[in-house]
Specification:
single chain, 437 residues, OB fold (Dihydrolipoamide Acetyltransferase, E2P), binds FE3-S4 cluster, globular, 19 strands, six-stranded parallel sheet, alpha/beta, binds iron/sulfur cluster, Rossmann fold, binds S-adenosyl-L-homocysteine
Length: 437
């Protein structure tokens, strides 16, 4: 019996898919890269913008064909779109056998049993399942042997007016530090060197416990023997405080890279988005980060064309991008999401104008990214060798999250090594290994 999982969306979904793979392997299924030969196909969906919604429906149209030669194959839909609109998807694609949401993934064994017996297994919970942490007991099946995601907080309590995530993922629930450390310990014993703590808002970690702070978690994870590198995503500018920044700077394991979404540069738009900070306050955090961690690589998310965004508002975003000099920017056009407060606001600019703003911004950032990469010419950087590609190059990332291709012996796989950078490209660096652990 074989399974195939198609994952859309963010790292939370990737980690959930790794857990579902763990469940399926525990049940005796083996993975396949070819959905046509799968007995179970799971589509783990995202709903953050309209495009991902559409992608799911077209993927389902394709996967439906599996039933021609394998009528008993089970097609399941889960994740954020399923949580938000599972019944609608089922109506649009009645051939699917299984639908479940984001807080009952641990019910997969029962749901699958139900679906295999020919019934439709549809379970979307309105309330958060209080036993959802049972999911964490399943092993993750990861593509990458040396770096691993660890979910530390689920859900989001912020109410950004454009965002569907609080609806699809529910309120914030932090995992107990002890449970997280046990998982980290297990991963390290399994060969993992880099731990990537994830959550929609990791900097809010522990708030629901009262007095636990995110930096305490950082310290605890750093103390686990064998953890060489720590990353975390996503931090929220409002919750990132000086104490956390100091701990990031002090712990040698915490990598010099941070994704800190600003979304927009204009105070008027930030307020309409209900982000809880002004441009000035955001830039003060960036200043602190650069002060304590001078070589930090920064990245951000931008929404172009939030309702009411004028050209002058947009120029404020451009100004921030030029001032911060991010290593990477993920920019998208605003997409109204059903049921969110911003969904009913009228769009004030034409789609063509917004496309132009988005393109100009992406082009501006391309040059900045390249300029930042050029700083690496002839430098020596540490990379964690994650794989060997078809051209026999070692592939890994710097602590600042730059992709590096290096000449060197395959025995370095899974090791931290020093690389001298000889060539700089727009999206990667190339060099040769000069020494390792
Ligand atoms: N929790 C993270 C982001 C989660 S969603 C944070 O607060 O930063 C990932 C990104 O999708 C967001 O940063 C935002 O830039 C984008 N996004 C979310 N809702 C959107 C919408 N309605 N239209 C366009 N982009 C959106
Ligand atoms: Fe969405 Fe805002 Fe929560 Fe991020 S912080 S997930 S953008 S509501
Ligand atoms: Fe998408 Fe859900 Fe993540 S909406 S971005 S998969 S939390």
């Amino acid at each position: 019996m074989k399974y195939y999982i198609k994952t859309f969306g963010c790292q939370m979904n990737v980690n959930d898919s790794e857990k579902m793979a763990g469940i399926l392997q525990t049940l005796g299924y083996t993975p396949t890269e070819n959905w046509e030969e799968a007995d179970v196909i799971l589509v783990n969906t995202c709903s953050v913008r309209e495009k991902p919604d559409q992608k799911v429906l077209s993927a389902l149209g394709e996967f439906k064909k599996v039933k021609k030669h394998n009528p008993n194959a089970v097609i399941g839909v889960c994740g954020c779109l399923a949580q938000r609109a599972g019944y609608e998807i089922y109506q649009k694609a009645p051939f699917i056998d299984m639908v479940f949401g984001t807080t009952n993934i641990h019910h997969l064994p029962n749901l699958l049993e139900e679906a295999k017996s020919g019934n439709k297994a549809i379970e979307i919970l309105e309330e958060i399942d209080e036993n959802e942490n049972l999911l964490d007991r399943f092993p993750t099946v990861r593509e990458n042997k040396y770096t691993a995601f660890v979910t530390v907080i689920r859900g989001c309590d912020k109410k950004c007016t454009y965002c569907i995530v609080p609806t699809t993922r529910g309120r914030e629930r932090s995992r107990r530090i002890g449970d997280i450390l046990r998982e980290v310990q297990y991963l390290v014993e399994d060969g993992v060197k880099e731990i990537h703590l994830i959550g929609q808002n990791v900097t809010a970690y522990g708030k629901d416990f009262g007095d636990v702070k995110f930096w305490e978690l950082l310290k605890a994870v750093a103390e686990v023997d064998g953890v060489e590198r720590i990353r975390f995503t996503t931090g929220h500018p409002k919750d990132l405080d000086e104490d956390t920044i100091k701990v990031m700077a002090d712990l040698p394991q915490v990598c010099e890279a941070l994704h800190l979404p600003i979304q927009a540069g204009s105070d008027r738009i930030l307020q309409a988005m209900d982000r809880g900070y002004t441009q000035k306050e955001y830039l003060q955090k960036i200043e602190l980060l650069k002060k304590y961690i001078p070589n930090i690589a920064l990245s951000t998310d931008i929404i172009v064309g939030f309702p009411g965004e004028t050209y002058e508002d947009y120029l404020e975003t451009v100004k921030v991008i030029k001032e911060v000099e991010y290593d990477q920017v993920f920019a998208f056009k605003y997409s109204p999401r059903p049921g969110t407060p911003a969904a009913d606001l009228p769009m004030t600019e034409s789609p063509e104008e917004l496309s132009k703003r988005l393109n100009d911004l992406i082009n501006l950032q391309k040059d900045i990214t390249f300029k930042k990469n050029l700083e690496y010419q002839d430098k020596i950087v540490e990379i964690l060798v994650e794989e060997i590609n078809q051209e026999n190059k070692l592939v890994g990332r710097t602590r600042t999250n730059k992709l590096v291709y290096a000449e060197g012996s395959p025995e370095y796989l899974g090791k931290l090594v020093d690389v001298k950078i000889e060539k700089v490209n727009r999206f990667s660096l190339e060099g040769s290994i000069i020494g390792g652990d």
